[in-house]
Amino acid sequence: MKKLILISLLFARLGLSQAWPSGVVTNATIPFAVDNSVTTLATAITSSSSTLTVVSSANFAAFQVIDIDFEEIQICSVSTNLLNVCPGGRGYNGTVAASHLINTSVYGYVNSIYINSIFTEIHSVENWLQNTQPGILNTEINTISTTNATTVVNALIPILNSSNYATLNAASAAALPGQTIQVTTNMSLNASLVVTNPILIQPGGLISPGCTGNILQINGSFYSGNYQVFVPCPLTFNAIGSRYDGLSIYFQNKSNVIQVNPVWFGADQTGVGDSTNAIKACLASITPFPQDHPTLSQGGDCEFPKGTYLISSIIDVPPVTNMIAPLRESGADENFLYYSALIMTNFPSGNALRLNGTNHISGFLFTPSNYDTPFNTGPTITVISNECAIENNSLNWGNPSIELRYPVSGENGYPHSTYGQDGSETLIRNNYFREIGPNGAISIPLDNVQSGIRITSNMANGNVEETAAVRFLNAVGSTGPVLLNSDISFNSLVNISGVTAVPFNISIANSIVSGNITSGGNTAFNLSNGYGNHIFSNTLTAVALPFHLNNESDDTIDVGVIDGGGSPYWINADINSVHNQVTCSNTNCTMFFANPSNNIVKANGISNLATPVFTTPQINNSFN
């Protein structure tokens, strides 16, 4: 305290004074700075002159402090070529008033008085807050309407400390409109509660609704750091209702709380503790109730801070909720994408997520915790409804990595139509698939038909099982296309080691396949049971058999760039491949018909291809 008084006395002797707390700061206490202020005296002045005649008054302003020789002078107004000195403005800031000759330079330096006067004002405010009014540090500004609806007054209202009350219910009932409720200890609920006041949870504060059916519904603003603030109840996903049973914390208004942090619910960022229920609670807290559609609450984001999160069972992502981890902006990483959150599974299937509709998953690395088993026994991400986006993720050891599977009626308790008929409008983009299992990177089971899928700009890098196929869609044995009206483009499939590996094993119709790059494997494009596709501008390297057509019709195929293929037979057509248009720029492209017994191969537009080659015996074939 003595030190503060001495500082105040010192600045007072220098002519510095503060406005606070008796007034509001002006340029009378903090000088006004102007750039490029320089001129000369037009006439000489004495030590008491109050008007300075200068050659030019441009770039000078009221309440500026100027320098002439060794004297500082504060001016209060400026007119044409005249600088008018403030009362007491001569010999300012501890300098000495003196006479100055004609043609002496006049400068508008930003000198110590500018900095010191700002310091004086800050010092005065801090001293008042710390010593005169210490209680004000525990208050906040609130806007309260008076009885006159057109009048609004600002008042200082202390933050309400919930520790003074037995339950959060009692604290909420005591809070004034707009008053912040501060939680510093463990607070319980004695009944379900809707809170519209802002809530601030300090370190050590905790809200425990209990597991007796009480629900805390937060409708106002919510403030907390990156630490646990809730004690959630065990949750079980209800497939029929597409939401979690056991809900105890619910954020109703997304406009007030945009992102919810799984750490608030007890998720362990170190990857040591099990974060399964905490992540479920985070998702459940932003899942709209059925009666909320389509009003205030429309889901939200469960946003993961950087870390590793261990899960011990599959996590269902309810409709219109998202799992987001912000991507790192810089840094090197072996996983192609700069993920910031790692989801680590410690169970054999490795099925980390099941998407129930209109979900967005972005910014994660998915990997098993135990690498002793070569691959997961199930898909890493299963999509069972439409309008999902899976992008900017890295998926390791998947089998498959992503499965597009809408369950049949009653399968695993799921109704046939929950939030859409199929996986339409699903986007799979900018993902990195590494060490892929026999079931491929992206798979569609044979009993499902999908429409409107976009698979673009993904990278699949290698597999470790010799018989594994790196493939985007599983269509082996299907009798019709499983993917309609879709786009498979600008994907890169490299380092395919399996002798029988097929980068694109697809059954599609009315779709576009373009701009993809493959290297290695037995067959680059195994097309079966499809029609009406446009396949062009793909790059194939070191592929034994670039194209294999089985029961394909009405496709337009431009073979694209082929480099280092192991076979001279570029197009292999089997049963019932009809009405296709094939173009190849390579001079040794050949149309090769394998096992031509009972084939119908007709009306094929073959451009720049050598004479078709047929195997024997040729029985009951028709070629025209």
Question: Which helices and strands appear, and what pairs or packs with what?
Answer:
Layout: H1 2-13, E1 38-40, E2 51-53, E3 65-68, E4 71-79, E5 82-85, E6 105-107, H2 112-132, E7 139-145, E8 152-158, E9 160-161, H3 168-174, E10 181-183, E11 186-188, E12 193-195, E13 199-201, E14 206-208, E15 216-218, E16 222-224, E17 236-238, E18 243-245, E19 249-251, E20 259-260, E21 270-274, H4 276-284, E22 300-303, E23 307-311, E24 315-317, E25 321-324, E26 341-345, E27 353-355, E28 360-362, E29 364-368, E30 381-383, E31 389-391, E32 394-396, E33 402-404, E34 427-429, E35 432-434, E36 442-443, E37 450-451, E38 454-456, E39 459-461, E40 483-484, E41 487-489, E42 492-496, E43 504-506, E44 508-509, E45 512-514, E46 517-520, E47 523-528, E48 534-536, E49 539-541, E50 545-550, E51 556-558, E52 561-563, E53 571-573, E54 581-583, E55 590-593, E56 600-601, E57 605-607, E58 610-614, E59 622-623
Parallel strand pairs: 9-10, 10-13, 11-14, 12-15, 13-16, 15-19, 20-22, 21-23, 22-25, 23-26, 24-27, 25-28, 26-29, 27-30, 28-31, 29-32, 30-33, 31-34, 32-35, 33-36, 34-38, 35-39, 37-40, 38-41, 39-42, 40-44, 41-45, 42-46, 43-47, 45-48, 46-49, 47-50, 48-51, 49-52, 50-53, 51-54, 53-55, 54-57, 55-58, 56-59
Antiparallel strand pairs: 1-6, 2-5, 3-4, 3-6, 4-5, 7-8, 17-18
